[in-house]
Amino acid sequence: MADCNVVVLISGSGSNLQALIDSTASGDNPAHIRAVISNRADAYGLQRAKAAGIDTRVLDHKQFDGREAFDAALVEAIDAFEPHLVVLAGFMRILTPGFVRHYAGRLLNIHPSLLPKYKGLHTHQRALEAGDSEHGCSVHFVTEELDGGPLAVQAPIPVQSDDTPETLAQRVHVQEHRIYPLAVRWFAEGRLRLGDNGAELDGQTLPPTGQQLRN
Ligand code: GRF
């Protein structure tokens, strides 16, 4: 199977990056992480990448005059690695429409909620406040609508009566580390793609909730 070059964008801890690194270490995965790019020099994920022998770049958004200039430089840095797929893994920047269009169909994000619920921040707190019985995480193709692109995979988990935002976040993270590597692998294998009517898996358009993966 042809190699799938992957560039991962991060801003922080990079635990999802670590899950991706671990999952691509085995020889039978066509996904290869060519570079990790961060907008913050102190992102711990950069150390994870270096420890795995992966190229890193830092592009500090504060050094640029506005979003357009930053995203143009980001595109240049990413494209130097000729990616087939760009993976957002805790990249805390809102991307310009031009950036999103440039990577249409090859840009994935993970979000800590069962989208379309709780776009944006503080998702665990919001799920608890709403009294939801289920929460979880979603992998989706990125479109110009923030956290709004077609869903590829979702992992729902039950909310427990004694959950706090922290305990819930912890259990959701475990699921993130399960479904993101899987979605990336499916993409690299040519099984997951963005079709005209949404995300497709093995040639079938997925339901609006994406592929549901329950434990
Ligand atoms: C995750 O919760 C992810 O869903 C969100 O940002 C967080 C990144 O965590 N997009 P990490 O840096 O991968 O640990």
What structural category arises from helix and sheet content? alpha/beta
Can you tell me the residue ranges where pLDDT is under 50 for at least 5 consecutive residues? none
Spell out the CATH superfamily of the domain at 1-103: Formyl transferase, N-terminal domain
What is the correct CATH architecture of the domain at 1-103?
3-Layer(aba) Sandwich
- Number of E strands: 11
Major sheet characteristics = 8 strands, mixed
What's the number of helices?
6
Mean pLDDT figure: 97
- What is the CA-CA span between the terminal residues? 29 Å
The largest sheet has its strands arranged as: 3-2-1-4-5-6-7-11
Bound molecules: 5-O-phosphono-beta-D-ribofuranosylamine
> Which CATH class of the domain at 1-103 is shown?
Alpha Beta
Return the string of H and E elements: EHEHEHEHEHEEHEEEE
- Using the CA coordinates, give the radius of gyration: 17 Å
